[in-house]
Write a structure and sequence with these properties.
This protein has no helices and eight strands. It is mostly beta strands.
Length: 94
């Protein structure tokens, strides 16, 4: 439940969970021109959930069922591949 800050065009983040549950990625800050895709991926590489924003600067939350303890990956991507000077910020909650 900490804010993570990054810069577009995008990055993958790795987290470890110890108990099954609903994993939520909350995009809290986003550059005004950024079109964003958030994806939650399990350690086998299976995409559990993903969502794209429909307008630049939109904030979203993506939920996935993390049905086993282990490593999960969060992808924060810029859909147009643009680089932005301003950072995005998100947090992961269970």
């Amino acid at each position: 439940d900490q804010n993570v800050v990054g810069f577009a065009p995008g990055a993958y983040y790795k987290i470890e969970i110890s108990t099954p549950g609903t994993l939520a990625v909350v995009l809290e800050e986003v550059p005004a021109e950024m079109l964003t895709r958030i994806a939650i991926i399990n350690e086998d590489g299976t995409w559990l959930a993903s969502e794209d924003t429909t307008s630049p600067g939109q904030k979203i939350t993506v939920d996935a069922n993390a049905n086993a303890p282990g490593w999960y990956y969060i992808a924060v991507l810029e859909l147009n591949g643009k680089t932005h000077a301003d950072a995005y910020a998100f947090r992961v909650v269970m």
